[in-house]
Amino acid sequence: MKGVWWLALFASGVLSKPRCRCLHGHPCWPTEDDFSQLQSTISQPLIHPVPPESACYPESNPSGNCTDVQTNAFFGNWRADQPGAMQAPNFETFIFPNGTIEACYLNTTLGFPCEQGNIPTIGVDARTVEDIQAAVKFAADRDLRLVVHNTGHDYLGRSAARGAFMLWTHNMKNITASPSFIPEGAPENETYYALTLQAGVQWHEAYDAAHANGRLIVGGLIPGGTVGAAGGWMQGGGHSAFSPQHGLGVDNVVQFTIVTASGEHLKANSYLNSDLFWAVRGGGGGTYGVVTSVTYRTHEISPLTATFVSCSPSSSAVRKDILTEYLKLWPGLSDAGWGAYLGIPTASNFSVLMVAPNVSLADTNATLTPFLDVVRNAQDAVIQITPFDEFYGFYQAFFGTPGPEDGHNTELVSRLVPREVFDDREHLLDVMMSLDPVLMLHVAGGQVSQNDPDSAGVNPAWRNATALILSAAIWEEGVTVDEYRVIQEKLKYDLAVLESLAPGGGTYFNEASMYEPNPQHTFFGDHYERLKVIKDTYDPTGLFVVAAGVGSEDWDSSLNCMLV
Ligand SMILES: Cc1cc2nc3c(=O)[nH]c(=O)nc-3n(C[C@H](O)[C@H](O)[C@H](O)COP(=O)(O)OP(=O)(O)OC[C@H]3O[C@@H](n4cnc5c(N)ncnc54)[C@H](O)[C@@H]3O)c2cc1C
Ligand SMILES: *[C@@H]1O[C@H](CO)[C@@H](O)[C@H](O)[C@H]1NC(C)=O
Ligand SMILES: *[C@@H]1O[C@H](CO)[C@@H](O)[C@H](O)[C@H]1NC(C)=O
Ligand SMILES: *[C@@H]1O[C@H](CO)[C@@H](O)[C@H](O)[C@H]1NC(C)=O
Ligand SMILES: *[C@@H]1O[C@H](CO)[C@@H](O)[C@H](O)[C@H]1NC(C)=O
Ligand SMILES: *[C@@H]1O[C@H](CO)[C@@H](O)[C@H](O)[C@H]1NC(C)=O
Ligand SMILES: *[C@@H]1O[C@H](CO)[C@@H](O)[C@H](O)[C@H]1NC(C)=O
Ligand SMILES: *[C@@H]1O[C@H](CO)[C@@H](O)[C@H](O)[C@H]1NC(C)=O
Ligand SMILES: *[C@@H]1O[C@H](CO)[C@@H](O)[C@H](O)[C@H]1NC(C)=O
Ligand SMILES: *[C@@H]1O[C@H](CO)[C@@H](O)[C@H](O)[C@H]1NC(C)=O
């Protein structure tokens, strides 16, 4: 009898295998003929991404230029130009369940072979909406693991996946300025001075275009402006030192266009597909479809004063005094629209760059006096207070000439710091003193808090926050899996320290860790359920799946097999 019972189950399909993606190397992987057919429908040759470091291993990549890689490996814009590169190379590597690490290290004398790791083996270099539609259809028809890769900045490794098929958006570079843009379906009198950026535009290009139009666009501030302006940045929320003045990235989007899993090209704004418009603005990249363009409102330019401060605190007492005076200034400064980036990379280094929009040099100096007085007494004190006519000059002065500062193995942990934590400064001080390194980004408060938490899918925790606080692990390549486990333990420990700031709080999906015990709540708060409903509406078969993204809980830890 037992045997019959089992047979009946097999026949009914109840015990059939779970649905798993078709990966490179599996018998189901598309044939040469399949790829030739795809080739005939797209505008560019198919690409075969490789880790860029492979250029230094002639047996892996005989045509590679190792000198080029060694010269440029630590420059973010060069990395963004390579479809096989992640900005942090640890996301190019793959760790098997048995602990074997598959990687391709820049340092060839470490003695490891160069392997493909986490980098998809083939993909489409999209230049048009039709290219994107062809790639989406190809992946959907064959149930491939689809990876949307823009600049590779992602801190959760979401723009790479082993054995996947890549859709590379980097070369979709069109920018259109529209002085009186009307979202489709909006009343004729709802106009914006807007910039429409195609999926591959990066912030340095968007800033050049805004400058050419005499306008300000709210974007990421990073050396070289390498982060994508219309990709993961916006879809995760998008912060800026100008957010306290003008809101998050998602608050500045008036429309976007997107290719969904069905291959349709949709327009979304407050009037059309408004549920998708809500979800994509903060509900996560690589989750609802492939965004083909984003239309941002721009703002009038205005003067600002930038303050750069650095010093080498000689003791923890000095460091604590500096931080105490600094923290006293906030959240009053964010209420006034100020933003800032503070970094304490080691206990003996302190630096901060503050932006005071529409505030004169004298007023800035007066506002900061108690803080500057403590800094002035510290070792190696540097205090520069510089007025700028407008954003672009400021951007060029502080971010225009990037150094070789990217391309390091990096993982982050973070928390949004609610305003009330600043009222009870002692605990915040203790947390900041105990983390190494620590970064505090004053990219919330002000306008970010004034906008309705339910106006966009982004984590509502942003609306109550005054800052984003982060710690990190940065390590040399070539570590053993056991050494990597120690790094992970440090990050988990730091995460628990951060969680103590505001138990049950939230953080920024784009600058976070993979060790969150409750990622749905921490990344999306009480927006999660609605986001999941919208995800399932537009992507019912789960073509778009990324680590910790909405709907990822339906998949196993490899994100390749659906849980039944
Ligand atoms: C050095 C550095 C500086 C940073 N500075 C800032 C900052 O100032 N402000 C800030 O808010 N964040 C910042 N970030 C975080 C940044 O916002 C995220 O890394 C973000 O995911 C980058 O998006 P991307 O499209 O450029 O990168 P990618 O890694 O290529 O993509 C990120 C995610 O978005 C998806 N995606 C990309 N394009 C599309 C598309 N067209 N359609 C659908 N999905 C897409 C990808 O699949 C992936 O899941 C920084 C990161 C780094 C490494
Ligand atoms: C290799 O790269 C270097 C540095 O970018 C460049 O100067 C050189 O011309 C390149 N060599 C070849 C053969 O392309
Ligand atoms: C670990 O697993 C991978 C993939 O199955 C295999 O190639 C490798 O040989 C294994 N390593 C060890 C040490 O067992
Ligand atoms: C490369 O690895 C070797 C062997 O571990 C080490 O001695 C050397 O310092 C490394 N080089 C660089 C540039 O990190
Ligand atoms: C890019 O912009 C130019 C000029 O506005 C336009 O002619 C062209 O069709 C656009 N290309 C795409 C792919 O949208
Ligand atoms: C547009 O016109 C309507 C009707 O005249 C008016 O109620 C609304 O306030 C106007 N909106 C803007 C943005 O001017
Ligand atoms: C960090 O502090 C040390 C010790 O004072 C100093 O030598 C070093 O130059 C500082 N580094 C930076 C980047 O400021
Ligand atoms: C700047 O300040 C002036 C005078 O206080 C004010 O009129 C103007 O609206 C402000 N501009 C911005 C962009 O805040
Ligand atoms: C800033 O204010 C201090 C007094 O608090 C003064 O000594 C200093 O000259 C001022 N600096 C600038 C640049 O105005
Ligand atoms: C934000 O603060 C308000 C008012 O204190 C509170 O009601 C709300 O729950 C908070 N939201 C989040 C996400 O913390």
From TrEMBL:
UniProt keyword list: Oxidoreductase, Signal
Range of residues in the leader sequence: 1-16
Pfam families: BBE, FAD_binding_4
Origin superkingdom: Eukaryota
Domain FAD-binding PCMH-type: 116-301
Molecular-function GO terms, alphabetical: FAD binding; oxidoreductase activity
SUPFAM superfamilies: FAD-binding/transporter-associated domain-like
InterPro entries: BBE, FAD-bd_PCMH, FAD-bd_PCMH-like_sf, FAD-bd_PCMH_sub2, FAD-linked_Oxidoreductases_BP, Oxid_FAD_bind_N
Family affiliation: Belongs to the oxygen-dependent FAD-linked oxidoreductase family.
Name used for this protein in its record: FAD-binding PCMH-type domain-containing protein
Organism whose genome encodes this protein: Tetrapyrgos nigripes
